[in-house]
Every structure is written in structure tokens, then in C-alpha cells.
Design a protein that fits this description.
With 162 residues, the protein is of the alpha+beta class. It is built from 3 helices and 5 strands, in the order ααβββββα. The radius of gyration is 41 Å and the shape is rod-shaped.
Length: 162
């Protein structure tokens, strides 16, 4: 019987030590959770977690609406930029050799959709003439001079032959 009693005491001692170790580990875990809880809610005036969550949800909804309006504005700006004249080429020339001066030019203005104008001037002693030629889809309905074609090339626009 003494042998059984001895084994029973050893088993109870081991169980007691294990229980104490598990209790200490649980207390450490609880302390860590309390520290985390303090960090999360320090400086917050929300009375409960539900109130804090509702407040954050409202702020998130507001941010979503702001992002959506910024996205719409970005799309409108992008559409406008495609219509704007953003490709430019300029060629100055002298069509009269030594007599004339280099006051003549061809200016090509295009948008991203191969649409635009070519503005040319021809200056003589009697005055200056201005010519405007419309370009749509990379084509002009009026024949272009070599200077006008060069201005279009400088603007990054290759024009189809008329």
C-alpha cells in the first residue's frame, strides 16, 4: 500500500506543478492582452467598441465617396486632355531665296486623335497672307506644302497623302 501512496503523491505533485505553470502562462497571456487593449483604446472617447466601429465605418464611407468623385474628375480631365492641342510643330522658312526674309512659318497643332490645324504665313513686300488648313484623322482636304508637312512631322504627326 505504501507503494501506491508514494506513486499517488508523485502524480499529484506533477499535476500540481503543471497546473501552477499553466496558471502562470494564462496570467502572462491576460497581462499581454490587457496591454494590447490599453494601446488600442488609449485616447479614444468612444464609450464602447460598437460606437468606435460605427464611427470608423462612417469615415470610411465618406472616404469612398471622396475617392469616387476624384476618380470622376480624373476621367473628365483625361477626356479634356484628348481634345486639347498638345502636339506642336513649327517650321520657319524663306520661300523667295535671298530676296525675302525668314518671316514665313508653318505651325502644326494637333490633339491625340490626329485632329488639328496647320497655320501658315507667307510674307511679301505687299503684305502677309495667312492660310489655315484643317486636319481630321491625319488627312487634310487641301494639299499641303513641304513646309506644312515638315511642321506636322515635328508635331509627331504623319499625314496621309491627299
Amino acid at each position: 500500500m505504501e507503494n501506491h501512496f508514494f506513486y499517488l503523491v508523485i502524480i499529484l505533485t506533477i499535476v500540481s506543478v503543471l497546473s501552477t505553470v499553466l496558471g502562470i502562462l494564462a496570467l502572462i497571456k491576460i497581462r499581454n492582452l490587457q496591454q494590447l487593449h490599453r494601446k488600442l483604446f488609449t485616447g479614444k472617447k468612444a464609450k464602447n467598441l460598437e460606437g468606435l466601429m460605427l464611427e470608423l465605418t462612417e469615415k470610411t464611407d465618406g472616404l469612398d465617396k471622396d475617392i469616387e468623385s476624384l476618380f470622376d474628375a480624373s476621367n473628365q480631365i483625361n477626356k479634356l486632355s484628348l481634345k486639347g492641342l498638345n502636339k506642336v510643330g513649327l517650321v520657319r522658312f524663306n520661300p523667295f531665296g535671298e530676296k525675302g526674309h525668314k518671316g514665313c512659318f508653318s505651325l502644326a497643332l494637333f490633339n491625340e486623335k490626329q485632329k488639328g490645324i496647320i497655320l501658315s504665313t507667307l510674307s511679301t513686300e505687299s503684305g502677309t497672307k495667312i492660310f489655315v488648313k484643317k486636319v481630321i484623322n491625319g488627312k487634310s482636304d487641301i494639299q499641303l506644302t513641304k513646309e506644312e508637312r515638315k511642321a506636322a512631322e515635328l508635331a509627331g504627326q504623319s499625314l496621309a497623302n491627299n
